[in-house]
Write a structure and sequence with these properties.
This protein is an alpha/beta fold and 264 residues long. It has helices at 3-17, 22-29, 33-45, 69-73, 77-88, 103-112, 125-134, 157-163, 189-201, 239-248, 260-263; strands spanning 19-21, 50-52, 55-57, 96-99, 119-122, 140-143, 147-148, 154-155, 168-174, 177-179, 183-186, 202-208, 220-223, 230-234, 251-255. It has a 7-stranded parallel sheet with strand order 6-5-4-9-12-14-15, with helices on both faces. A 3-stranded antiparallel sheet has the order 1-3-2. Strands 10-11-13 form a 3-stranded antiparallel sheet. β2 and β3 (55-57) form a beta hairpin. It starts with a helix and ends with a helix. The mean pLDDT is 88. Residues 3-58 form the HTH deoR-type domain.
């Protein structure tokens, strides 16, 4: 196989999954570790990907770039379902739970739809719609007001007024990126303010973030890593990231990703 063909296969996988591992590429391409690393060097030099410890991820965009909900919903689908299922398992029945906006938290809502006695507070139109469809009479859902962002979050003064003064048992927070120095971040300044209010209202913070979020830095920090009580991610997280997160967050939960047909 020519180098150009290998590199195109690598890029195709990065586009599809958000990242690749050197060890996996060595096996799938039947080439040496050195050859894979040389290909990654070439692709990084072109700006096609960004190397991380043990592999590579999609290149980081501008820190204020905010993809829409539909665009994000097709990325890392199996990972997000595994993470959402695990995160939902951390929410107790008959508790007050906050769900921030995001594609992963919208899936968390799907897994919580049959949980009895929940009081749900959210600034996500998609999350509210999930609970509206199931309409359990023993669940209460409060949707904040506010201005709508590209990711379908409600933000601004009305959202803040809805959240401040609340006391939540658990917040499940979706994030745009996470990094050791910057913490959990977002590309939208107003959404960051709303998410910080949700974090302040919560006794327990659960962050649900797939491996592609590691190393991505949005313009505004929501919370430092050590504010997180439980971080739920997937097995694609690089080893260096796993070590850094294990030192900083209260508990790291790494889900085993399987095709959704096998997840039950």
């Amino acid at each position: 196989m020519l180098a150009a063909q290998r590199q195109e296969l690598i890029l195709e996988q990065v586009r599809r999954t958000g990242g690749v591992r050197v060890a996996d590429l060595v096996e799938s391409l039947a080439v040496s570790d050195m050859t894979v690393r040389r290909d990654l060097d070439v692709l990084e030099h072109r700006g096609s990907l960004r190397k991380v410890h043990g592999g590579a991820v999609a290149p980081e965009g501008p820190r204020t770039e905010e993809p829409g909900f539909e665009a994000k919903s097709t990325r890392q689908e199996d990972e997000k379902h595994a993470i959402a299922r695990a995160a939902a398992g951390l929410v107790e029945p008959h508790s007050a739970v906050g769900l921030s906006a995001g594609t992963t938290t919208a899936l968390v809502a799907e897994y919580l739809a049959d949980t009895p006695g929940l009081t749900v507070v959210t600034n996500s139109l998609h999350v509210a719609e999930v609970f509206h469809r199931t309409a359990r009479p023993d669940q209460t859902v409060a949707l904040t007001g506010g201005f709508r962002t590209p990711s379908d979050a409600l933000v601004g003064p009305l959202a803040l007024a809805s959240i401040r003064g609340l006391n939540l048992d658990t917040l499940v927070l979706g994030v745009h990126g996470m990094q050791e120095r910057a913490g959990f971040t977002t590309p939208n300044l107003m959404e960051s303010e709303t998410n910080r209010a949700l974090v302040e209202a919560a006794a327990t913070l659960v962050v649900a973030a797939d491996h592609s979020k590691w190393g991505t830095v949005g313009i505004s920090t929501i919370a430092p890593l050590d504010r997180c009580d439980v971080l739920v991610t997937d097995s694609g997280i690089p080893d260096a990231a796993r070590a850094a997160l294990s030192e900083r967050v209260g508990r790291l939960v790494v889900t085993d990703v399987r095709p959704r047909t096998e997840q039950g």
